[in-house]
Amino acid sequence: MKLRIILACLASIYLSGCSGTPENTTAVEPLNDAQATYERARNNIAAGNFSTAAQTLQAMSTRYPFGPLAHQVQLDLIYVYYKLADIDKALAAVDRFSRLNPNHQDIDYVLYMRGLINQRADYNAIQELAGIDRADRDPSKAKEAFNDFAQLLRRFPDSKYAADARQRMVGIKSRLAQYELSVAEYYMKREAYLAAANRGKYVLEYYSDTPEAEKALGIMANSYGRLNLTDLRDSALATLRQNFPDSSYLR
After folding, report:
1. Pairwise CA distance, residues 168 & 165, whole Å
2. Same domain, 152 and 242
3. Residue scoring higher pLDDT (28 or 203)
4. How far apart are CA 236 and CA 234, in angstroms?
5. In CATH, what number is assigned to the domain containing residue 11?
6. In this structure, are residues 223 and 188 in contact, taking their beta carbons and an 8 Å threshold?
7. How many domains is the chain built from?
């Protein structure tokens, strides 16, 4: 009787051990599958196949939302959406990652990408290729990009993305100044000279370190002259002469 009990116990232990083996294998398989799938996505990114990469990464995000690759998948999705110029999805991915991982080691990259995405939204490739000057288009996305880069520099001044962000801010300031000057020119055509002068003054106050400062002074001098505000006109001309002695606005 005792022998039967012992044999039964041994059989039970053996069966338990056998049944445990597939469970361990099954636990490893999803990780291997995830890694292989991720490598395919990375290869597609490297090859410039961003649409295919996006589909793969989206599937991974759904299937492995809490896996060891989850954060990297989300970061790659931000980049892929940016390359596809899918602004809404890119910004949604940025906001989601920032909300769920505010202290992540790559949060400076996420901020940087937010700036790039908003800058991309301000850029109209078709108009640029056609050589169409659209300085008068809504600058709201350019302002958002500027603020994104400014936040990056404020929070992470030593980030490896800081130098490029700073350089992009210079270009964005020129873009914003050009918008103000396009409005000033509109006012000039409407003979709303005081409004035109005020736009030029705004450029000098906020974008004086851009090349557009020269044109702003020219518009101010012209506007004040038409309003017979000679002191203000002469002051604008003096500043123009001092900073831009060869300016066409002095002729």
Report:
1. 5
2. yes
3. 203
4. 5
5. 1.25.40.10
6. yes
7. 2
Of 70, 85, 100, at which residue does a domain stop? 85
Distance of CA 103 to the CA centre of its chain: 19
| 108 inside domain | no
Q: What angle do CA 163, 113, 128 make, to 5 degrees?
A: 85
- Distance between CA 117 and CA 147 in Å, rounded? 12
Q: Is 17 exposed, middle or buried (0-12, 13-18, 19+ CB in 10 A)?
A: exposed
Q: Which domain holds residue 38?
A: 1-85
Report yes or no on whether pTM surpasses 0.85. no
Report how far residue 14's alpha carbon sits from residue 17's, in angstroms, rounded to the nearest whole number. Answer: 5
Residue 143: C-alpha distances to residues 36, 171, 199 (Å): 41, 12, 17
pLDDT exceeds cutoff 90 at 69: yes
- 111 located within any domain: no
- For the residues 18-30, what does the mean pLDDT come to? 44
Examine residue 204 and state whether it is found in any structural domain, yes or no.
yes
Tell me what pLDDT residue 129 has: 55
Residue type, 108: D
For the segment 61-88, the average pLDDT, to the nearest whole number, is 95
- State mean pLDDT over 10-33: 47
Confidence at residue 24, expressed as pLDDT on a 0 to 100 scale: 43
Radius of gyration of the chain (CA): 30
pLDDT of 227 over the 90 cut: yes
Is 10 within a domain?
Answer: yes
> Are 64 and 154 within one domain?
no
Which two three-digit tokens encode residue 165? 């962000």
Find the range with the poorest average confidence among 22-31, 100-109, 150-159. Answer: 22-31
**207 residue type, one letter:** Y
